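Notes to self after the Tuesday call (sharing in case useful).
The group wants a holo model before anyone commits to mutagenesis around the pocket. I volunteered. Ligand is nicotinamide-adenine-dinucleotide. Logging inputs and output together so the record is complete.
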Amino acid sequence: MKIAFIGLGNMGGPMAVNLAAAGHEVVGVDPVAAPDGMTMATSAKDACAGADVAITMLPNGAILRAVASEVIPALPAGAVFIDCSTVDVESARAVGADAKAAGLGMLDAPVSGGIKGAADGTLTFMIGGCEDAFAATKNLFDIMGQKAVHCGASGSGQAAKICNNMILGITMLGTCEAFAMADKLGLDRQAMFDVVSTSSGYSWTMNAYCPAPGVGPASPADNDYKPGFAAELMLKDLGLSQDAARACDADTPMGALANALYAKFVNENGGQGVDFSGVLPWLSARGNQDA
Ligand code: NAD
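Result:
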C-alpha cells in the first residue's frame, strides 16, 4: 500500500519504519523528526496525494484537527485515514465525521504498549470507526501491533483508551501508596510483593510493572524511574478522562483525584521526565497530613 505517515516522533517513527520494512511504500511528514532511510514529504498534502492510507501519530486533538484539515481534502475518495494519537473523544468524532463526509474510511486507533511496543511491533490498538475500513487495513495493524480490537463506532477507540488509562493511573497510585504505607509499618517490600501479587490486591501495576525497585519483574523502577510511560503522558490521559467525564456527565471521583495527584507530581514535585511509577518515592516522602 501507499501510506502517508504524519508525526514521526517516539511512537510514529518506529511504527512507520516497521511498515516500510514490511514492504509498504511509506512517505513520512514531520517538521522535526526524520527516521533514517524514510522517504519524506514536506507537507501532508503532498504525502497524501494518491495514497491508499494516511496514518497520524500526533501530540493532541488540536494538532490532529489542524493536520486533518490538510489530509482529508488531499486523500483520494475511498482511502482510509487512521489516527493513532491519543486525543479527546470529541476531536476523534469531529475528524471522523469530516472524513466520512469526504468519502473516506476513518478509524480512531489509539495504542497501548509504549515506545518499546512501537519499536517491536507489539502494540495493542483500540479501534473505533467503520468495520469495512478496519478490514481493509487489518494487515497494517498486524505489522505495527500484536492485537487490534474493534470497539465500535467512531470515538470508541479513544473511549477505550482513556477508560483503560484512568484505571491504570488510579491503580498505580493505589499500589504506590500501599508500598509507602507498608514501609512505614515495617513490612518488607519483597514480602509485600509476594503476598499482594498472589492475593486480591494483584494488578498489572503490582505484578508486571512493580513501582518498587528490585522487586518483581524488571520495570522502570529498576532503571531510576526513567520512562517507560512518562508521568506527563499519564497526566495527559487522566486530563482527557476528566474532559470526557464532564462531556458525558459521568461521576469519576477516583479519576479526578488521580488527575490532581499526577498534576501535583508533574508540575510541582519533579515528575517531569520521570516514569509514572515514580510517584512511589514522592508518596514515601509524604506524611499523613500532606494534602
Ligand atoms: P512525540 O512528541 O515524540 O511525537 C509527536 C510528533 O508529531 C513529533 O515528532 C512532532 O514533530 C510531530 N508533529 C507535531 N505537529 C505536527 C504537524 N503539524 N505535522 C506533522 N508532524 C507533527 O510524541 P509520541 O510519544 O510519539 O506520542 C504520539 C501520540 O501517541 C500522543 O498522542 C501520545 O499521547 C500517544 N502515546 C504515546 C505513548 C508513549 O509511550 N510515548 C504511548 C501511548 C500513546
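Two things stood out.
The two ends are 54 Å apart (CA to CA).
The first helix runs from residue 12 to 21.
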